[in-house]
Design goal:
Distance between the termini: 19 Å
Oligomer: single chain
Strand order of the largest sheet: 5-6-3-8-9-10
Number of domains: 1
Structural class: alpha+beta
CATH class: Mainly Beta
CATH architecture: Sandwich
Order of helices and strands: HHEEEEEEEEEEH
């Protein structure tokens, strides 16, 4: 019985450690392929440094589309400038949603999920993407764009920067932009997450050791 409890405790420790390490080990490099969505990053790329005004997002309509036509498909270009120099395999990413219309993926660099579109695993080594969007009506459509400028070291740290903005695609085909002000954010060192993981692991190990060393109580009447 004690061995069963010990094995279960060990499995629990390993599973908990895996869950703690997963966000920092894998992050959202593959975009929607890796679980990126507005439910996880609706307020910005919080794992990658702080919101930085030096990162300038951009959303434009490719070509001279003119006034919007309901049912027409337009090519939108998403890009950004600023942030750290990309020195590794990864350069940046984005996540955008809209309150109207339908997104489409013109190539393998983007992935679409309902009213959301983001970079794919193949598309995180660049800082410009093209997205297809079909107008549902001629009413003004609101797009919320989040961009992430990374240095390519494969780690989500304060060395990366991000920003986000709201765009309004008007019926005449023009776009107006409103930058989203950064929310209050606690500035903590890069090693904070590792310290939290180490503390949790130590606590779980102590609990396992207590369980191992605890002597079982005998039944009444037993010597």
């Amino acid at each position: 019985m004690n061995r069963t409890k010990t094995s279960f405790s060990a499995i629990l420790v390993l599973a908990s450690l895996a869950l703690l390490l997963a966000p920092t080990a894998f992050g959202y490099n593959p975009g929607l392929d890796g679980g990126l969505s507005t439910s996880s990053a609706g307020s910005g790329c919080l794992c990658h440094g702080a919101q930085d005004a030096s990162v300038a997002p951009s959303l434009t309509v490719v070509g001279d589309g003119g006034a919007l036509v309901a049912g027409e498909t337009y090519t939108l270009e998403v890009s950004f400038t600023g942030g750290p120099d990309a020195t590794g395999d990864n350069a940046g990413g984005f996540l955008m949603d809209a309150n109207s219309g339908t997104f489409g993926a013109p190539d393998a660099n983007v992935v679409v999920d309902g009213d959301e579109v983001t970079h794919s695993a193949d598309g995180n080594d660049q800082r410009t993407w093209q997205v297809e969007w079909t107008a549902e009506s001629t009413d003004t459509t609101e797009f919320t764009l989040r961009v992430n400028s990374v240095n390519g070291d494969g780690s989500a740290t304060d060395d990366d920067d991000w920003n986000m903005a709201t765009y309004y695609l008007n019926s005449d085909g023009t776009i107006t932009q409103t930058l989203i002000e950064p929310e209050a954010r606690l500035d903590v060192p890069d090693w904070t997450m590792n310290a939290i993981i180490a503390a949790c692991l130590l606590l779980m190990l102590i609990m396992v050791m207590i369980g191992i060393n605890k002597k079982p109580r005998g039944r009444r009447g037993e010597l």
